[in-house]
Amino acid sequence: MAQQISSGTQKPKATTIEDWARSDVYHNSFLIPQDSVLDAALKNSAANGLPEIAVSVSQGKFLQLHARAIQAKRILEVGTLGGYSTIWLGRALPEDGELITLEISSKHAKVAEENLSNAGLSSKCKIIVGPGHESMVDLPSEKKFDFIFIDADKPSNVKYFTEAKRLIRKGGVIIVDNVVRFGRVADPEQSDPNIEGVRSLLNALKGDKDVDATTIATVGEKAYDGFIYAIRN
Predict the structure, then answer these.
(1) What is the Cα–Cα distance from 74 to 147, expressed in whole angstroms?
(2) Which residue in 215, 71, 94 sits closest to 146, CA to CA?
(3) What does the similarity note say (predicted)?
(4) How far apart are CA 227 and CA 214, in angstroms?
(5) Per-residue model confidence (pLDDT) at position 4
(6) What is the value of pTM for the model shown?
(7) At 103, is the secondary structure helix, strand, or coil?
(8) Contact 187, 147 (CB under 8 A)
């Protein structure tokens, strides 16, 4: 049962990004042990000049827990970057599991390969270098994926999601990251290619009988954003 928190006659204090980040760090200190391999992946990515746009610690743990919860054996990731989220997901796989991750940048892929090797996941995780949509089109649909995580260029969201529906099994899960964007997606006064990419996906999902989906908004050390969670019907 939900509890209502009374603040008397005082209005609740407005929270900031610093508050959200502090909350993440606080909860993580109880629930997510320090991990030298993941820390090294972030350090190596930064040292090679990769943008600091990987998922947060708690988001990575969520992806891992979810992959475990649905007993995923085949995972597809669209957007590798330095392999940080790939490590979280790869660790969720059973011994005979497989993860394919798609990355357009050969530089990013090289860094990710180093990080996956350091994590002991090279045998389970395969990086395909090239444009994400073209790589997805080339993947056969006979052997379905259990879980697909889309975290790549937002203008291509609809193309990625369309292919994801082809590649995912019935009952499988598709997550699309970065779809709230500080609430700007819902603000008609705001527009840029990333926002429009999310809006196009939302329009495509409206009335789509192939999936059942919702948006989950999040706050934390990565600020105010969110993801679409969809199940293939």
Answers:
(1) 7
(2) 71
(3) Belongs to the class I-like SAM-binding methyltransferase superfamily. Cation-dependent O-methyltransferase family.
(4) 8
(5) 53
(6) 0.94
(7) strand
(8) no
